[in-house]
Amino acid sequence: MMMLAAPVIAVALTLLVGAVLFTLLGHDGFGAILEIFVRPLFNPYRWQDLLVKAAPLAIIAIGLAIGFRANVWNIGAEGQYILGGLAGTGIALATLDMAGPWILPLMLVFGILGGMAWAAIPALLRTTLGVNEILSSLMLNYVAIQLLYFLMRGPWMDPEGFNFPQTAMFSADQTLPMVVPGTLIHLGVPLAAAVALTAFAVMARTVTGFQMKVVGLAPKAAAFGGFGAASTVWIALMAGGGLAGFAGILEAAGPFGQMVPQFPTGYGYTAIIVAFLGRLNPLGILLAAMVLALTYVGGESAQTTIGLPAAATGVFQAMMLFFLLATDILVRYRLVSGRAAPAGVPAGKSEGEAAPSGKGKAVAA
Amino acid sequence: MAVEARAPRLELKGISKRFPGVVANDHVSFAVPAGAIHALLGENGAGKSTLVKIIYGVQQADEGEIAFDGERVHIGSPREARALGIGMVFQHFSLFEAMTVLENIALGMDEPPPRRELEARVREVLDSYGLSLDPHRHVHTLSVGERQRIEIVRALLQQPKLLIMDEPTSVLTPQEVEQLFETLRRLASEGCSILYISHKLHEIKALCESATVLRGGKVVGTCDPREESARSMAELMIGGSLKDLSDKAGCVHGEDRFVVAALSAPGEPPFGTSLKKVSFSVRSGEIFGIAGVAGNGQNELLAVLSGEERKNVSGSIRLDGTELARLSVGGRRRAGLASSPEERNGHAAVPGMSLADNALLSARSRMGLASGGVIKAKKARDFAAKVIDAFSVKATGPGASAGSLSGGNLQKFVMGREIMQNPAVLVVSQPTWGVDAGAASFIRQAMIDLAAEGAAVLVVSQDLDELLELCDRLAVINEGRLSEPMDVKGISIERVGLLMGGIHGSGRGAEPEDGTAPAGRARHPEPAL
Questions:
Q1: Which residues of B touch A3 (CB under 8 A)?
Q2: Reported ipTM exceeds the 0.85 cut
């Protein structure tokens, strides 16, 4: 139960400390909180914006959470998101002169495949050479950005685009339809909800979901249960890469409507916070994505209304992660003043032991 | 000293301790004189551990008082207990695997002396009690037996007046047990009292001069173990007559079902024991035992047989003639091989998951608990409930988390889960480690019944008595080599003990049969190169 309280406490602490911090920096701290976290909620136009920003965050975070469950730390969602966008864009550019309802689905499929392909590199390195996936996936983000820049300035530059480094605009058949006419809410929003429900079912009801949970809780028991370490790494990275790529092409074919060098906006990193804030639970992630989307939307409007620096968004997001990690630790462990009980307290559970003991293997003085 | 010489070293008067829903100790009273070796007997759940924790200050009694050397004391923490002169060796070790023996000892001390001084004192204790242990080894490289020695040294360094030993012999060779008993007897003769908790009744008979028997949290009797039989003590403990294991003599062994030939595998890095051309065969209806001191390749053997380890493994594993060596864990299970590793928590079972989920862990394919990758939650719950029922596992139901079960109950569940899949071959390691007499005899009987139905059962255990009681034939594993199998009937315990101690190969990989390794002091082997 406390596990569910931790994210709420973390968000509350973020608001409080954020207000104090920005007051000390000479801004109107409480006004900033109001502007970022409260006001957008009462503005119907901002709500559209919120949903549109939350959708990719949720989709990426759900993919990451599946891997995080199994202690596979894919930090490369940003790159996988870019590659997904690029792969889908490739299809779009190849089909610019064509028409038909098959184009958009094909773009989406290639978006997923693009993200998977990018995630396959750390998966392969990890399973064959034992390379830590945190480092390899993170470094590939920078490679992906360079690849994007290269394509925008070279082969994929729009010949009629006055030498701007961007592709041609996608055609109507290559753009996501709006689900609510007259708003910004595109097909990606309901798709994000569908992804969350599917992922929830997969984690709760399938052997694969069970595998990810067992690997995370007890890796040796997973081996005993017949779940190979390599298959776990592959599943984790394919889920993370595939969904990040999916989010990428949804963004390219949705709000952007073309591919531009400004395509990566840090969603791949923010999604890590979303995943943890949502307790790695797909449905929790939907809520957490809304909270983080709020920092984007509110942060943007606070720049214009009360002149808060653009970095404020990042500060709030980072605070949220740190407070979450801190509250998690304090939920699991207790602060003890002075010298704690020395070693010699048994770690295992034995008869008659009613009080739940700490998670640590031994308590040392 | 002289004044207090007649007061008992430790006296408990009317100790009671309640937990929500359970009375763990109900007005327990007994006394341990100075220099006495006193046994505390009782099944799992009888309240021994709680009582011991109260004495060691880990928990506080709700009622009653404790007198130490005649003086009424309040023991608020293990630190206060140690200050009084109470030392304890726990059944579960509290060691940091990534640290050395010496660092672990220092961590357990209230005021550790400087390193050099501590090392000198540790070496002194090791020498004077004849314990072999290298203070600079990292704990993760040590066998269970060696880890226990760290705990013993920890306790002895404080020069305790009362030493509490919780199940200390479960991992030792007969010679090592005898050596431990020598140590304990010597401590006792120096005036240290010993409170000894064990399920091995013949050991209690050999070592202890008085015993208190607990059942359901109450003292149900005291006795002089030297004048009782193991059976009479067991019956006192259980409060009923002990069921005999059914006679295996009438069993007819069939064809070879499980044949392992020239099985070699590298040890678990970085310090595991590699398997060296292990060959044996188990016939239908037969229980085959593998004895040996911990850390001689048992875990590697289990992992290779179950399929958890397949890298760089050579040799063949055949079940009814079918080659299993290339099959995955799941493939071997489907072929009829069930296994249960030594460690329950985190290996055979996931403590943080429900029993139903734990049923899913190893029984999903054979029992059809999942199809097409989708879990059949109801079937999993039903199967878990069947196991709970058939193996009388004390649990609130299939939804109970595995971590909430006591060691014995979890082991019953794990064994039940494997046995009720009706495997052709069952491979188990330490099936009754830390399990009380009633549960242990239940588990053994279940294995005998499985064999009687024609399965081949392989039991890897450090408990020689268990193997002698259970098995038709046994072999000894030492440094990854398996001895010739011996018929249990007419076996020489002396010879088995020597084989366990490594008589057919010294600790440094020298020629076999050199016989220089001191028996009963098997060292953990050096990493295979």
A1: none
A2: no
